[in-house]
């Protein structure tokens, strides 16, 4: 329920705080006093968009804050799903800067207007004169029926299974299109795969072939260089190894006379051994190097094939060709096994359809059981508010064979007649504004008995009624307040007198400014206010007496 509403710097309000009662709260005041301003402020914390700039002081920001007691309304999941801090006493705040920028907070955590609106819809139902239009919508009509029938769980089960069926059906259709497209491409895929498979691709092959190619293309130069090096080392008259050995022998011959030359002799010997080993390896490489035109031709042809395949398929390596070959193989296998997959998806669609239809039938049965009860209860309430001949008929008709909607497997119609002999028609075609308000009041009073909605607000829905009818409407609101918090804005004394708490909105002039204010009336104040509603600004003794009688009930 709404515990406290705090308004700062909004329209004609400098700063205002209203503490509401848990029962029936009545708000009265002269036309233009500011009742609509309070409703406008409240709409902002319920997620409505800012319409224009309304600031008491245009240099300061506007702040609207509502404190709600939500401990008994099972909203923990909503807070967890939206990563919000939960508290039984939750504060919703809306701030609007002079430049029009808006920020919203739930328990001091910034939120989007969408989240704010979603929470607001679970906290307060605002019913204005214009709200009567929703009575003709299928969404509202199903909401009424499901509320009374207690079929929200069945409806959720149906919705889940309906969307599961729709998803499976979509997957089946998409797969059919894929199979159709794949069948057209099968020959092309097969040709590409055969070409790549025949190439017998090997990872790292290209790099090794390119090295071999360079060696064979330069075989003459390689052999010439190796032969030259070998001759310089050991085959010529002036070969390095021969001269190095002579030097080594010369030094070794004097080591007995000059001991310090022993190390030099050893180093020369080590160098000679190393160079001898190098010379042997060069000689071996020279012998292995062959000018093989046949092998070079084979390598060139192989590389040409690899380069051609890469260019054809717009890739840069043999590895990518291998991946493409494997992908083509997978596609061909999928095409070849598509019949099995198609049958599996068809069976899945049938299974999910059967589940959705079963849940839909259960939902329809649950809804059908309360149609007569809703009509009876609404008609009884309408009789109490001056419409004794009103009749409500709710039709729940199955959709065409195989047709399903998110709302269920039925179409719904609320038909209404306000007078004897009047043909049953859609409500908006046969009911006046005052009658529509009473019909909506009767419906919402019934729904309130079965729903957990914390608060409902009636914004001047008493238009078009008066006298005894107004008294009866007040009694319905009073009864409604037994199950939920009710806030009602009214111009009728008969309704205002039914409130557990009564607030008066008024305007006053301060420092060349007109300011809207609100005050909770005590019993004496209520008598005066209701008397003024009966007879004007200066109530007569009779009006005061009548007001006291109304308050006593």
Task: Characterise the protein shown here.
- The protein contains 19 helices and 15 strands.
- The protein is of the alpha/beta class and 553 residues long.
- Helices cover 55% and strands 17% of the residues.
- Helix 6 packs across helix 10, helix 7 packs antiparallel against helix 9 and helix 13 crosses helix 15.
- It folds into 2 domains: 300 residues, P-loop containing nucleotide triphosphate hydrolases (Rossmann fold); 138 residues, no CATH class.
User: What does the radius of gyration come to?
Assistant: 46 Å
CATH class of the largest domain: Alpha Beta
What is the CATH architecture assignment of the largest domain?
A: 3-Layer(aba) Sandwich
Fraction in beta strands: 15-25%
Short description:
The chain is an alpha/beta fold. The chain is built from 19 helices and 15 strands. The strands form three sheets. The chain has a six-stranded antiparallel β-sheet, with helices on one face. A six-stranded mixed β-sheet has the order 8-12-13-3-14-15.
Question: What descriptive keywords fit this protein?
Answer:
six-stranded mixed β-sheet; six-stranded antiparallel β-sheet; Rossmann fold; 553 residues; alpha/beta; single chain; 2 domains; 19 helices
Topology:
Layout: E1 2-10, E2 13-19, E3 24-28, H1 35-45, E4 62-69, H2 76-81, E5 89-96, E6 102-106, E7 109-111, H3 113-123, E8 124-128, H4 138-149, H5 152-198, H6 205-217, H7 219-235, H8 240-252, H9 261-288, H10 293-312, H11 318-336, H12 338-368, H13 371-384, E9 391-398, E10 410-417, E11 425-426, H14 427-430, H15 433-448, E12 455-459, H16 467-480, E13 485-489, H17 493-496, E14 501-510, E15 513-520, H18 523-535, H19 541-552
Parallel strand pairs: 3-13, 3-14, 8-12, 12-13
Antiparallel strand pairs: 1-2, 1-4, 4-5, 5-6, 6-7, 9-10, 10-11, 14-15
Helix pairs in contact: 5-11, 5-12, 6-10, 7-9, 8-9, 13-15, 15-16, 18-19
